[in-house]
Design goal:
By secondary structure, the chain is α/β, with parallel strands linked by helices. It is 40% helix and 18% strand. The protein has helices spanning 14-32, 45-51, 57-65, 77-80, 89-100, 123-126, 163-179, 194-206, 220-229, 241-251, 292-304, 308-324, 339-352; strands at 2-10, 35-40, 68-73, 104-110, 130-136, 146-148, 155-157, 183-188, 214-219, 236-239, 262-266, 271-275.
Length: 371
């Protein structure tokens, strides 16, 4: 298969972790005889510095012409700490979601047995957790009307949703539940918000089309609590933009490291894949950032293209790195590996995983991580 992939390294640690994801994809290409053609593009603070805009037109064009987009991270402290800034890096990502019609964000949350001790939650609460969060991505309060009074003392953010916006992501969430444990939880605030009442009414109407899926409902405040008390009760979570942003970040603590959480943002014609950890500017250029979320995002990219065996090869390589402790300092503080060395190991394992003579306990710090 020949695949055109637009790579947007972005800000902070984005370029470093994205480089490791490309290593994994290149290894997949070698083993499975594919051709992955990468074209890099600007977005975020780096784009503002170079072009004056967080999302250049050329980036949008490249993304629309590609089969998939691999994205690193966005954000910079000089904008985060300036509430008066009119142009911000995050505006680029919001605009790209709109331009590409990326209405559905999917975030898998899994508790790896080898990392449970890293989680701040008790093992008996989180062991066996396997959740898929479906977050609506192009509607709601983030994209609503925003107003500030002339005197600067009153602000307004509007939230709106249509039945069509709700139905298109709800169908995807129901279908995911059918392929998993057949349970879907809608998270809303239907006791207060009119938009949430429309969500509940619309999703309930669709449920008859998926009789094998059990549908239940939770208010977002209760859902946030239940994620900590008993995350294993969830299978697929469906929710609107703002609630999904909060819930999915909260769920990240379950697995023991936010550096393991990948995501996919999909539309009818385009798809973008990214880690959820953000730009982490404190680690920029230090070769210490965890690349596994970016690498797992590459696996989701392969799944999206129908390359399931190839995605499985990346998943197995990540699992092996966790088992052997070939991880960065956020997971392995005693004997950490660098960002690039973790990427080397993943690529080497993909290339050699069928070789029964390989001894994966022997690791050195040379060009190859496996000897």
């Amino acid at each position: 298969m020949k695949v055109n992939i637009t790579v947007i390294p972005g800000d902070g640690i984005g370029p470093e972790v994205t480089a490791q994801a490309k290593k994994a994809l290149n290894a997949i290409a070698d083993v499975f005889d594919h051709t992955f053609l990468f074209k890099e593009a600007l977005m975020g603070a780096c784009a503002i510095d170079e072009t004056g805009t967080p999302l250049p037109d050329e980036t949008v064009k490249l993304c629309k012409e590609s089969d998939a987009v691999l994205f690193g991270a966005i954000g910079d402290p000089k904008y985060d700490n300036d509430p008066t800034a009119k142009v911000r890096p995050e505006q680029g990502l919001l605009k790209l979601r709109k331009e590409l019609g990326l209405f559905c964000n999917v975030r898998p949350v899994k508790a790896y047995d080898t990392l449970i001790h890293n989680s701040p939650l008790k093992e008996d609460r989180i062991k066996g957790t396997d959740i898929s969060i479906y977050r609506e991505l192009t509607g709601g309060i983030y994209f609503g009307i925003k107003e500030l009074s002339d005197d600067g003392k009153v602000a307004f953010d509007g939230c709106s949703y249509s039945v069509e916006e709700i139905e298109r992501i709800a169908h995807l969430a129901f279908q995911s539940a059918q392929a998993r444990r057949k349970k879907l939880t809608l998270v809303d605030k239907a006791n207060v918000l009119e938009t949430s009442r429309l969500w509940r009414k619309t999703v309930a109407a669709l449920a008859s089309q998926y009789p094998d899926v059990t549908l239940d409902y939770l208010f977002v405040d209760n859902a946030a609590m239940q994620l900590i008390l008993n995350p294993k009760q969830f299978d697929v979570i469906l929710t609107e933009n703002l609630f999904g942003d909060i819930i999915s970040d909260e769920a990240s603590v379950i697995g023991g490291s936010i550096g393991l959480l990948a995501s996919a943002s999909v539309g009818k014609e385009n798809a973008l894949f990214e880690p959820i950890h953000g730009s982490f500017p404190q680690a920029k250029g230090k070769d210490i950032a965890n690349p596994l979320a970016s690498i797992l995002s590459a696996a989701m990219l392969l799944e999206h293209l129908g390359l399931h065996e190839e995605a499985g090869a990346i998943d197995r390589a990540v699992q092996k790195s966790l088992e052997l402790g070939i991880t960065t300092e956020d997971i392995n503080s005693e004997k950490p590996f660098s960002t690039s060395k973790v990427g080397d190991f993943i690529a080497d394992y993909i290339n050699n995983q069928e070789d029964s003579d390989m001894n994966f306990q022997n690791i050195h710090m040379g060009q190859s991580t496996i000897i």
